[in-house]
Amino acid sequence: MGIRVYKPTSAGRRNASVNDFSELTPGWKPEKNLLVPQKKKAGRNNQGKITSRHRGGGHKQMYRIIDFRRLKDGIVAKVDSVQYDPIRSANIALLKYADGEKSYVIASQGMAAGDSIENGPDAAPTSGNCLPLKNIPLDSTVCCIEMRPGQGAAMCRSAGSGAKLKARDAGWAQLELPSGEVRRVPAACRAVIGRVGNADHMNVVIGKAGRSRWMGIRPHVRGTAMNPIDHPHGGGEGRTKGGRHPVSPQGKSAKGGATRQRRKPSNSAIVRRRKSRRYGQLKLHK
Fold first, then answer.
1. How many domains does the chain have?
2. Which parts of the chain register pLDDT below 70?
3. Which helix (H) or strand (E) element contains residue 214?
């Protein structure tokens, strides 16, 4: 996937860029049986309260039903097409199994129409195949990783992401995530060989405010521009830098403050935190 840059014919076009969608299959059409309407939530929870600010509007979207579990073992599937998904950063692939069933999966890097895909412990450890971690060679790059057997892919599902399978011991597998965190998961969990495609998604420059509105992102107002009743940074005579350490509208630290629950049950699964005094700060894969 490459990046196409516009000529600066206007202020909105200057420095803006888009994907060239070279990974997509020409003439692809969405599978209607795997589409459901996507209801707008505008950042609200089931009680109607705003839990994520600056959300609302945006283009109407249809949700693609993705097969994150990949439990159809021993049946070879052909990649019918690689398609665009408006819901996620990664592209998706439409699979046609030998028994006639169709399903969507996250498209891994290099996947193209006509490729053969297989699931299960007997599948070959090649790109795009889904296997249990106990059957994947060490030092392999994997994506779409389960955290509990049979749960379905939960980690490394966004464009360009992938984790390293570092070790296996006593029914557990150790994975080095893109953040540098080393986490252990049961070796019976499944993962897809390879890295998620559409890696250039992070290099796209939006270029203008209107494109953010199309994606359902509303304007963000600075706290220093508000009144004291609206934000802890608000008020003051003249323009200020806030007058205190950056905080959220609720008064919680916005930079550097710990937000993870101290007694979260999954803490025991973390072998090494992404920010470690022993191993240094954030470590990224190249």
1. 1
2. 1, 242, 276-286
3. helix 209-214
